[in-house]
Amino acid sequence: MAEETIFSKIIRKEIPADIVYQDDLVTAFRDINPRAPSHILIIPNKLLPTVNDVEAEDELMMGRLFTVARKLAEQEGIAQDGYRLIVNCNPHGGQEVYHIHMHLVGGRPMGPMIVG
């Protein structure tokens, strides 16, 4: 079984977060260290440490990350100009919290995808 993370506690509202969306499959909240004017993390309510842990049974939940991202981009007023969705996997991918999460970032030009 995967180890519980800070995100699990946010889902259960045991620690404070600026939650902007929550349903039975996913939770979305504002990043505490935003990298853009809009920076929201969208996470599955089921603890999956990395993309490598996703199974066929998780497809509906993982698809919900994208439909919620679209809805939140519209609410944030960034859908028309554009935004970036980022999912990191493991250390070389830049993952810091081992509970899959999608970053929705926008509100300014994002620049090149990979620098360096």
What does this structure look like?
The protein is an alpha+beta fold and 116 residues long. The chain has a single domain (6-106), classed as HIT-like (HIT family, subunit A, 2-Layer Sandwich), CATH 3.30.428. 24% of the residues lie in helices and 22% in strands. Strands 1-2-3-5-4 form a 5-stranded antiparallel sheet. A hairpin with a 3-residue loop joins strand 1 and strand 2 (26-30). The longest helix is centred in the middle third of the chain and has 18 residues, at 59-76.
What is the count of distinct domains?
1
What is the terminal separation in angstroms?
Answer: 36 Å
**How are helices and strands ordered from N to C?**
HEEEHEHE
The CATH architecture designation is 2-Layer Sandwich
Features:
5-stranded antiparallel sheet; 116 residues; alpha+beta; 3 helices; HIT family, subunit A
Q: Topology of this protein?
A:
Layout: H1 6-11, E1 19-22, E2 26-30, E3 38-44, H2 59-76, E4 83-86, H3 90-93, E5 102-106
Antiparallel strand pairs: 1-2, 2-3, 3-5, 4-5
